[in-house]
């Protein structure tokens, strides 16, 4: 029962992320500026390797968790309180 509650609560954020991914994919193949920018990002990653991956992982993790916490109304709650559903 709890699993369904968690899946339902994660459905909207998951669909938003998939939508953003789809928009980026379409823009990559249809917009020359997006194509160029993403290829430059790929070249930068290729040249800087592990440092780039670590920096982007930390940034994405911090942004994703902070955004999710702020949007879900869990800001200021202790961790055990966050685990309660309902």
Textual characterization of the structure:
This protein is mostly helical and 86 residues long. The protein has one domain. The chain has three helices and no strands. α1 runs antiparallel to α2. The protein is flat and about 45 Å long. The termini are close together.
The amount of beta strand, in percent, is under 5%
CA gyration radius, whole angstroms: 17 Å
Q: In sequence order, what are the helices and strands, one letter per element?
A: HHH
| Shape category | flat
Mean pLDDT: 81
State the separation between the terminal residues, measured CA to CA: 12 Å
The low-pLDDT segments are none
Helix content: over 70%
Number of strands: 0
Per-chain topology:
Blueprint (H helix, E strand, L loop, with lengths): L1 H29 L1 H41 L6 H4 L4
Helix pairs in contact: 1-2
How is this structure best summarized?
The chain is mainly alpha-helical and about 90 residues long.
List keywords for this structure.
86 residues, mainly alpha, single chain
